[in-house]
Design goal:
Elements lengths: L5 H16 L36 E6 L4 E5 L3 E2 L1 E5 L5 E5 L2 E4 L17 E5 L4 E4 L5 E4 L4 E5 L6 E5 H4 L13 E5 L20 E2 L6 E2 L9 E9 L3 E4 L2 E3 L2 E4 L6 E8 L6 E4 L5 E7 L6 E4 L5 E8 L9 E3 L12 E8 L8 E3 L4 E10 L7 E5 L5 E10 L2 E3 L7 H9 L20 H4 L44
Parallel strand pairs: 2-5, 3-6, 4-7, 5-8, 6-9, 7-10, 8-11, 9-12, 10-15, 11-15, 12-18, 15-19, 18-20, 19-21, 20-22, 21-23, 22-24, 23-25, 24-26, 25-27, 26-28, 27-29, 28-30
Antiparallel strand pairs: 1-2, 13-14, 16-17
Keywords: Signal
Protein name: Lipoprotein
């Protein structure tokens, strides 16, 4: 990924030695440093902890002062592993956990000998990692069904969070979730044709492959699902994000998902065609929405709030060094609250062709943040019904100047570059935002939901974010 990550690199590098030391080998990996350990399914009876663990997981003792039975996932999941909601039970990953084998990029002809895995997670379940290299990879051809509900979201988080010791600014305490699919990507090796089953690439952060020939590929369901305190830098510019969606197809459901306090991006898309709705991105230390490698999906209803003491861009839309066909992400109904300093809200580069509709971009009046920065002449952007309230509307630099960006912005309908924010609670529309005429989204892409307003949250009665997410309102902690 592109980016200016030197400060973050310094912050995270100090964690690397500890995280590397905790990386387990094959089979059931050993517990990460600091985890309580224990024997078979009847071992340990901490106060409130369940007596045993569900089939397919390993009892490794208790955590949270003996109140929770720690049931560890195997290093590889084949067949179906269900994680039921049980009193006194929490689940954990140690090292890399693979869901299935890599079945290749051709859904009609899976790799010989490769075995599918399915990870099914009940509403209300909590799962943790203890170190940076504790993470989950859902391989091509396998699936995750993490289907919570508004009252019982599924939470993947850090051990510190489970034990109540994660601070409000804690990032990078475990790896995160990587989902790999068989949809088209544009960073094919050599002369491999775009759209072919062998057009594949190795995903950032781990040695697993994504991409292929099935744009309707189904990697499962992420719904009412939170990832917290995640992200880890393997090498400079090679990181685990909160959630990585690489080559993920349109058959996959991503809806009501939050990433909170990732040390890298909130969600990064590498190619693929998956559509996402109802996202909450808070406290992430790099970009919140990062697209690359020919991504062609839609993203609608998004609240972004940058962290107070760090963070980078809200969007980085890229295109794998101007490969063809370009990334064409389509964003709608985004409300983005930028940070006081650092990089700009919406950064476009490397030949992407990005579209932004019905959205609100803001930054604090005391900041130096620009709403939009375009970094090269081959990059394109479309704007319609976008309301901006930033100290600087368009970044003036040696790449694409402010006047050229302004002309691109002005070519769209119902755009405002120098508005005054009337948002309440940072993300709920006020009079100025609701005065903007909305763009008809279903005429652009049927994957969008039809709306008559801009921004993520129309008014105080619009509560799609309430209950399952955290950290947006006073007293709501993660």
């Amino acid at each position: 990924m592109t980016g200016f990550k030197d400060l973050k690199t310094l912050l995270i590098t100090s964690l690397s030695a500890v995280a590397l030391a905790s990386c387990g080998g094959g089979g059931n990996a050993p517990a990460s440093p600091g985890e309580a350990t224990g024997g078979g399914t009847g071992g340990g009876t901490g106060t409130g902890a369940a007596a045993d663990c569900p089939t397919g997981t390993t009892n490794v003792g208790t955590v949270a002062a003996g109140t929770l039975r720690n049931c560890q996932l195997p290093a590889k999941i084949t067949g179906t592993l269900n994680l039921p909601l049980r009193a006194g039970t929490v689940y954990s990953v140690t090292g890399r956990v693979d869901v299935g084998d890599d079945m290749g990029g051709d859904a009609a002809a899976p790799k010989a000998g490769a075995v599918k895995g399915v990870l099914s997670v009940d509403a209300g379940v909590r799962l943790f990692g203890s170190a940076g290299l504790d993470y989950i990879v859902v391989n091509r051809g396998s699936q995750i069904f993490a289907d919570g509900n508004s009252a019982q979201p599924i939470i993947f988080t850090s051990k510190q969070s489970i034990e109540g010791t994660a601070g409000t600014d804690s990032i990078g305490q475990w790896g995160g979730l990587v989902v790999l699919g068989r949809a088209n990507i544009n960073n094919c090796p050599g002369t491999t044709p775009y759209g072919s089953a062998t057009c594949e690439a190795q995903v950032e952060g781990t040695n697993a492959f994504y991409g292929g020939s099935s744009n309707t590929d189904n990697s499962g369901v992420l719904r009412y699902f939170r990832v917290q305190h995640s992200g880890f830098q393997i090498l400079p510019n090679n990181e685990l994000n909160g959630i990585t969606l690489a080559g993920v197809g349109s058959g996959t459901t991503v809806d009501y998902v939050q990433v909170h306090n990732s040390s890298d991006d909130g969600i990064e898309w590498f190619g693929g065609t998956v559509n996402a709705k109802h996202l909450v991105l808070t406290g992430n230390d790099d970009d919140d929405l990062d697209t690359d490698s020919g991504f062609k999906g839609t993203v609608q209803f998004v609240i972004v709030r940058k962290r107070a003491n760090g963070g980078d861009r809200v969007f980085e839309t890229s295109n794998a060094n101007n490969r063809q066909p370009p990334s064409t992400p389509q964003f709608a109904n985004v409300t983005a609250i930028g940070r006081t300093g650092g990089n700009d809200n919406y950064v476009l580069n490397t030949g992407t062709d990005a579209r932004l509709y019905n959205s609100v971009l803001t930054a604090p009046a005391a900041s130096t943040v620009a709403c939009i920065d375009i970094d090269d002449a081959v990059t394109k952007a479309t704007f319609s019904s976008v309301y901006m309230s930033c100290p600087v509307a368009f970044r003036e630099d040696s790449n694409v100047g402010a006047a050229a960006i302004q002309a691109m912005f002005g070519a769209g309908a119902n755009n405002t570059s120098n508005g005054t924010s009337t948002l309440t609670s940072d993300f709920i529309n006020g009079a100025n935002e609701n005065a903007v005429v909305a763009t008809n989204l279903t005429a652009i892409n049927p994957a969008f939901t039809a709306v008559t307003y801009i921004g993520a949250v129309r008014n105080s009665a619009d509560t799609w974010w309430l209950g399952w997410s955290c950290g947006l309102t006073s007293g709501s902690t993660c």
